[in-house]
Amino acid sequence: MTSEFEFELRTCRWAEREWEPAGSDAERTVFVARQLGTKRRRWDTLVLECDRDGLRERANFGPDRLDGNLLHVVRNAPAEWGYYRDVLPHPGYPWRYVRESIHRADDRGILETRRDGNRIQIRRKWTYPDWLERIVAIENKPDLDASAARALGGQLEYDVAMALADEVWVATRKTGDRVEPVLLEDLPIEAGVIALDPESLSGEIEWYPRTLPANEPGTRILERPAGNDRDASAARFEYVDPQTKADVRLEIAERAYERGWRSFLETMRPDCRHFQLQSREGNQLTPHCDAKGRCQTAAECSSSCPDVEPEPPVWRTNGWPIEGGPGKRYRQLLEDRRRRHRPEQ
Q1: If we measure between CA atoms, which residue out of 44, 282, 263, 268 comes closest to residue 144?
Q2: Domain of 100: which CATH number?
Q3: Is 316 within a domain?
Q4: Cis peptide before 321, with omega less than 30 degrees from 0?
Q5: What is the per-residue pLDDT for 339?
Q6: Which of 4, 126, 245, 322 has its CA 20 to 30 A from that of 148?
Q7: What string of DSSP letters covers 173-226?
């Protein structure tokens, strides 16, 4: 294992295979996403525990995410025709943006519209379901030294105070020591710890997390004192009301539903002749660079890489090996696997 990126992909696959919803409720299912969050906080891995029937109903609205404006429209659209200004609550911003969202929803086929003179009337096609049950956030630190632990400690304290996720975890590489080194670091006791062997995809829970009050007001830490003798100032924070948190959680879940965790090819160069997908334990495909002889990071696999070499045009024009070059086939393979873990119509 050479990078945090590779460890992150292995953690995602482990969670997809092994994660059990809270209480092992048979009516829940999970799917996994990565590198998502808010403008102030982004998590490495997200495990979304969902109501199975609700998730199936969510598929009516298509594989693409619904942003905050679209959610405002489809969640409040009435069962019977009505003028949109009469039937939708005021969004807190100009109505012209609501009209744009209505047109976008109509174009996607998830809302019915008609005109009564100059007035736009709307009617819902389906009821938007309550499909999201819980959000579990995981930070991946395969090698957690003291400096990394200090930085991670501040991030986890923010997560615990904000309580945007229902649980927060740290996933680290399993060492086999009697006491895993991560347990000796100064991390919030509310955060759980998973020791993961990325090669065999076996994980052990070293510390169970506390369930965070996601349905209650959160505390957003804005500024911390330096912590030295010269800085006696207090931390600055603000409260976040539960409804705001609920809206943010749903928007994160929508982005996770669209992206999943196998979307890493969107920021890499699968059309490079050195790019491959390598089969790993757990029926997983991870990127591999022949030029580097290892799994490359997303930052390395770019147009600025000195080893980048576009695949020969004949590969693409002759339909090799099936349709298009290997890069196109790699994308299709990962998209097919992502689709199996996201119910669609």
Answers
A1: 44
A2: 1.10.10
A3: yes
A4: yes
A5: 77
A6: 245
A7: E----SS-GGGGS---TTSEEEEEETTTTEEEEEEPPPPP-TTS-EEEEEE---
